[in-house]
# Entry
Amino acid sequence: MTQDECFHLGYITKPFGVRGQVVFFLDVDDPSQYAGLDTVLVEVKGSLVPYFFQIDSLSGNKAVVTFDEMEADEARALVGSELYLPLTMLPPLTGNRFYFHEIIGFHIVDQEYGDIGTVKSVLENPAQPIFQIDCNGTEILIPVIDPVIRHVDRENKEIQIQAPAGLIALYLGEPSNGDVTA
# Structure
C-alpha cells in the first residue's frame, strides 16, 4: 500500500513506561472514532509497514499503545515515525464538509461566473487552505472558507461557491463591478 492510498493519522511521539508502550499523537478531528483501532501502517524507511497493537488509554489526541509481540527497544526505535491508515477508513463527511483529496477534479461553479474550472489541488496555507483551480489553462486561487463554499454536490462532482467580489475577474484580466475607471 502506498501513501497515495492512505491518510496521515498522526505519529509516534515518545516511549511510555518500561513495558514497551509508546504514545501515538492522533492528528484527527475526533480521536474517539479510532478507539477500536488495532492495526496501523507505520512509515519505516520510506515504506508503510503494518503493525498490530492494543490501545491502553486514549485521552484527547494522545493514545498510549502496546504493540503486539514487540520488545521495548523495538518500540522505542519507532518513536518519531509517521502513522497512516487506508483512505477507506476515513469517516464519511456530509454536507459542505470534505476531505481535500476527495474533491480533486471537482468543478468549481461560481454564482457570478458559472463553471470556472476544476480543482487541481488544495494548497495548505497558514491563513486558510486554498483551491488551486485550472480555468482553461489559467490558474485561479480561491480561499476555502465557509462564507465562500455554498454547496458541495458529491454526486455531480461540483462545488458551488460565491467568490469574494472581484477575485475571479482579477485572474481573468477582466474589470470587476468594483473597478474604478479613470
About this structure: The domain at 3-89 is CATH 2.40.30.60 (Elongation Factor Tu (Ef-tu); domain 3). The chain has two helices and twelve strands. The chain has a mean pLDDT of 93. The radius of gyration is 22 Å.
